[in-house]
Amino acid sequence: MNDKAILGPWIRRFLMEHVVNERNFSRNSQLSYRDTLTLLLPFLSSARKTPVDRLAVEDVSPSIIHRFLEHVEKDRGCSYATRNQRLGTIHSLAKFIGMRSPQHIAWCTEVRAIPFKKTAKPVMTYLDKSEIDAILNVPDQRTEQGARDHALLLFLYNTGARVNEAAHLAVSDLSFGNTSSVRLVGKGNKTRYCPLWSATAAVIKRLVVNRAAHDAVFLNNRHQPLTRFGIYTLVHRIVAQASTTTPSLKAKRISPHSIRHTAAVHLLRAGVDINTIRAWLGHVSLDTTNVYAEIDLEMKAKALASCDISDEVTQKRKRKQADLMTFLQRL
Catalytic residue among 23, 100, 257, 269, which? Predict the structure, then answer.
């Protein structure tokens, strides 16, 4: 068996050349690709009764892939979205191999013909102004933890930052002055700058006083950088407290990403240009940002009111129609 027929070297090249160097995917995306292959290879080895290092490219047959995807759904209890994510990695690997090895073009075509499952579009959750205000009012800013919680929540609402961007925020990313701003590093290591409200700048400035430039902005109770999981836990805890005074929060499934959606919708309501919001949130495509215009019921209601024709229709109906002979005489 020649080197091009063995799967192992291709996977190493795929992860290092394509995922890391060519596409420059974020660390989380890299881990997602790795995790898919970590699940796939033992499954293939068991099905083919062949050691992982001796698996051939064509051992990854469409029938085996279908069995693997069924395993992901039924045995591992994953959703259709996760199943499609795993299949997307396999498609990318097949394309990578097919473009570099003509002998595998037919195999690549068969693998990439495996379709994704249609999934229901998830409902995008965002908060009304009264709801986000209720959440921001929960932390007791007189305590160290309360000051941090309030600063983090206000930062997420101000910037629309992703949870990973907030978790990795360093003091050196902040700029205070007449126009305070923050440097955010998003997906694909793309950098963007976002202005900070004076209230946000004030609470964060107090939070990071006497910190070194390389220190994380948001720390846990052990003075270690707050993790993504820690931020999720913090938001869920604050929302649970806020829901006692704001019952509408109980009907919503709220995460840190919901606050990102909230920032986008509120910017849109304030009349901010959609392309500015795209840059604010770090979206690559404007189509992604346009989703917020589609889901905002308040803006839809205003648009409907501006073109309400009910009075006009009522007036038209009140006019008495001329009889047929009169109509004919007027022609």
Answer: 257
The structure tokens listed for 132 are 């986000």
- Based on the residue annotation, tell me whether 257 is a catalytic residue of this protein: yes
Residue of 91, 104, 168, 283 marked catalytic? 283
Q: Delimit the domains of the chain by residue range.
A: 3-112, 129-305
In degrees and rounded to multiples of 5, residue 98 shows phi and psi of -60, -35
Annotated catalytic residue 292: yes
10-residue stretch averages of pLDDT, the chain, 331 residues long:
83 93 85 95 96 95 97 95 96 96 96 92 85 96 96 96 95 94 87 94 95 96 94 97 95 94 90 87 82 65 53 52 62 55
pLDDT at 27: 83
Give me the catalytic one of 91, 162, 261, 266.
162
Q: Is 317 noted as a catalytic residue in this protein?
A: no
| Contact between residue 17 and residue 72 where contact means Cβ atoms under 8 Å apart | no
CATH of segment(s) 129-305: 1.10.443.10
CA 132 to chain centre: 20
Q: Which of 100, 187, 192, 228 is catalytic?
A: 187
Distance CA(138)–CA(158), nearest Å, equals 17
Cβ atoms 107, 98 nearer than 8 A: yes
Active-site residue, 95 included: no
Could you give the CA distance from residue 299 to residue 318 in angstroms, rounded to a whole number? 32
- Among the listed residues 260, 261, 266, 278, the single catalytic one is 260
The per-residue pLDDT for 324 is: 62
Q: Which one from 33, 126, 157, 292 is the annotated catalytic residue?
A: 292
Q: What is the CATH number of domain 3-112?
A: 1.10.150
Decide if 283 is catalytic. Answer: yes
Are 87 and 114 contacting, i.e. CB atoms less than 8 angstroms apart?
yes
Measured in residues, the chain has a length of 331
